[in-house]
Amino acid sequence: MNGRTAIVGIGATEFSKDSGRSELRLAVEAVRAALDDAGLAPADVDGLVTFTMDTSPEITVAQAAGMGELSFFSRVHYGGGAACATVQQAALAVAAGVAEVVVCYRAFNERSGRRFGSGVQRREPSAEGAALGWVMPFGLLTPASWVAMAAQRYLHTYGLTPESAFGPVAVTARRHAATNPAAYFHGRPITLADHASSRWIAEPLRLLDCCQETDGGQAIVVTSLERARDLPHPPAVVAAAAQGSGRGQEQMTGFHTGDLTGLSESAVVARQLWRTTGLGPADIDVGILYDHFTPFVLMQLEEYGFCARGEAAYFVAEDRLPLNTHGGQLGEAYLHGMNGIAEGVRQIRGTSVNQVAGAARALVTAGTGVPTSGLVLTADG
Amino acid sequence: MRTGDVLPPLTLAITRTLIVAGAIASRDYQDVHHDPELARRKGSPDIFMNILTTNGLVGRYLTDHFGPTAVLRKLSIRLGAPNYPGDTMVLTGTIEQLDGDTATVRVIGTNGIGAHVTGTAVLTLGGER
Amino acid sequence: MHTDEDLTERLKAFEGRPAATEGTGKDPVNLPMIRHWCEALGDTNPAYSGPDAIAPPTMLQAWTMGGLSGHTGRSAAYDELLGLLDAAGCTSVVATDCEQEYDRPLRPGDEITFDTVIESVSDRKTTKLGSGHFVTTRTDIRVGPDLAGTHRFRILKYAPAARPEKPPRPRPVVNRDNAGFWEGVRDRKLLLQRCTACAAPRHPWLPGCNACGGLDWDTVEASGEGTVYSYVVMHHPPFPAFDPPYAVALIELAEGVRMLGNVIGVPYDKVRIGLPVRVEFREHDDESTLPVWRVTG
């Protein structure tokens, strides 16, 4: 699979707080936009991949987007942790010969419809529901609160303050979003003081440590590298794609094992990506790290080996790696990580609004605190 | 000085110390002005400033501006949003009327919740006590 | 049982009656109290210090305050009025208006007397705080025969608005794999699973052991001793079953496993990593008992 497939098309709807249309419609629009970008037609598509959380079934998207028969369809679980794994699924299918053109998509009205940030109050007594049952009765009900538990331990372990540790991640994202016309926070950079004065959500997390909530859709087209070379854009080669789940892995409430200062699922992905590509953190030109909450960006930088443990805040403050050049989910949009993959592709194509000169190798990651995934995208040749 | 003139604002940090010190200096021992636990039991999220302290702060705002020779003749205030610890109150004033050496000043104190105090004062400027 | 109209009528009967007659100040006007006032309020006006000092005019009411030892000169009528309001459920009080006129400055040494009259009692009013009656009094403050100032004061005596009834906390999610834990909690025991193959204790409850894969297990009752491993202070969004801000802590038990819970015995902003805690059990409503962690150190 590795190096034999490429991303050839990216497409998105506008990113808004109220799309005014159905999630299915957003999915179809994003898929069609990605196919247009790839120079392909709906009839060329024989595979679709999305998230288990998505409400638009592959068959319905295919029907509404003018596609015919499908020979591959698949879904990946665990929320935003699925993002890069959808591309892995597509690449596996193409490399294995079960499909030729696979579109990965994610679309939702996450702001105007069901907001993740509004929290959970009730769960079915399934194994998944029972896992949340250990935390809900005590009032830990939101994604921010689940991340805050690890964030507090991280600060404690390394003797950091929330302002100095998390502020630089938020400021960096909003600086990039400020120059990205597609970003919700276009033209609205923030300072460290803005971060430090934003209100508490789940201490030690403030409002500006939390990603936004978004309505929108994003799609990614994957095909073989040979076919990619005949298409309009320079291919973004899927040099490596990996999933990862740590020992004792849980979904967001992974409080019961480990020291809470790292992300064992990211370590599993990092090991595979570096081993497969023969690359290391020093070889990466741009990092698109999933930023649902600022502390997990720091922990990812440490797990991928960009810096030593406890030093990621300084690493970010010193701008040692171009990071989330689209503005991230803090600044551009919360598209469950799929918009980050699109930015990785733009960097390899050389078309980002915050282009890193000569970028040839991008690391893109998916949601953490849950089983996760990652990609190394490279320029062809 | 003219009617419509706006006084420079005075920004006050509403600290727990200010609330308690003001309550005690005005001999107001109501528990809601010094005991957070009892204040909460009475349905308030925290202790809050008593009206005598607010009155005194408005008086201070006026004489800070008009100087020690100004004499306060009347002061009427109404309270709105409570002053809780950790908030900031900004006092602003507008000269509503000037009649010889008598000024009528409208004062508003706004905190993070809304208008804490609205009031009207009548002062004799540079007058005899 | 009186109707509102009856009550209002009885309240109105107090209008014009004295609330205090020939009250005297607890202290003569004096420099130390003036200085304390100025210090508290940050008032540096030079008129309030030195040999010709006057008292800040806004101190007018302070000289009449009863302090901890109670009011002097208060009339039976005023106590009756407040008692009537208390009996009608208007047990809370908040000052809303203060209107003062300053006729002559008060100087150190002045001994004040005062008379207060109940000027008006309003109809029943509904406010954001609750429904109640505004009571307006007017106090004349004198030094000897001279009027020094008048002080009109309005309070709202009110019945606090009923808060919407608090919904129950989210329930534990009980199924066949974890029912034993919640049954233990109901019996006020903290039960940990223990693998019978490798003896590893575990939490959360699962049907098999992550350490060795063993499917057989028994339970041990935890000592209930632990320390705060990490914590979160919840502010937003507000969940009706909880009162933000509140702390949620991750407790590391003496047995080495961790579980989530709320900490009691310190305010939410004093929870810290490393605090020693011991388990207690609290009934939250008819159906739900939860472990809770009391700070012991």
TrEMBL record, chain A:
The record's section on CDD domains has:
SCP-x_thiolase (cd00829)
A molecular function annotated in GO for this UniProt entry is: acyltransferase activity, transferring groups other than amino-acyl groups
User: What's one Pfam family the UniProt record gives for this protein?
Assistant: Thiolase_C_1
Domain Thiolase C-terminal residues, every copy: 255-372
Locate the transmembrane regions by residue number: none
Which InterPro entries does the entry mention? Thiolase (IPR002155), Thiolase-like (IPR016039), Thiolase_C_2 (IPR055140)
NCBIfam families in UniProt: PRK07855.1
Write down the PANTHER family for this protein, in alphabetical order: ACETYL-COA C-ACETYLTRANSFERASE (PTHR42870), NON-SPECIFIC LIPID-TRANSFER PROTEIN-LIKE 2 (PTHR42870:SF1)
This protein is called Lipid-transfer protein
Recorded source organism is: Streptomyces cupreus
UniProtKB/TrEMBL annotation, chain B:
**Which segments constitute the MaoC-like domain?**
11-107
Q: Show the Gene3D superfamilies listed in the entry.
A: Hotdog Thioesterase
Pfam families from the UniProt entry: MaoC_dehydratas (PF01575)
Family that this chain belongs to: Belongs to the enoyl-CoA hydratase/isomerase family.
* Protein name as it appears in the record: MaoC family dehydratase
Q: Which organism is it from?
A: Streptomyces cupreus
- List the lineage, top down: Bacteria, Bacillati, Actinomycetota, Actinomycetes, Kitasatosporales
Automatic annotation (TrEMBL), chain C:
Q: Which Pfam families match?
A: FAS1_DH_region (PF13452), OB_ChsH2_C (PF01796), zf-ChsH2 (PF12172)
By its UniProt entry, which Gene3D superfamilies does this protein fall under?
Answer: Hotdog Thioesterase
Ranges for the ChsH2 rubredoxin-like zinc ribbon domain? 182-217
Q: Which InterPro entries match?
A: ChsH2_C, ChsH2_Znr, FAS1-like_DH_region, HotDog_dom_sf, NA-bd_OB-fold, Thioester_dehydratase-like
- Which residue intervals define the domain FAS1-like dehydratase in the entry? 24-141
**Chain ranges of the ChsH2 C-terminal OB-fold domain:** 220-282
Instruction: Look up the domain of life of the source.
Output: Bacteria
Q: List the PANTHER family hit by this protein, alphabetically.
A: BLR3430 PROTEIN (PTHR34075:SF5)
Name of the protein described by the UniProt record: OB-fold domain-containing protein
What is the species of this protein? Streptomyces cupreus
What does UniProt list as this organism's lineage?
Bacteria, Bacillati, Actinomycetota, Actinomycetes, Kitasatosporales
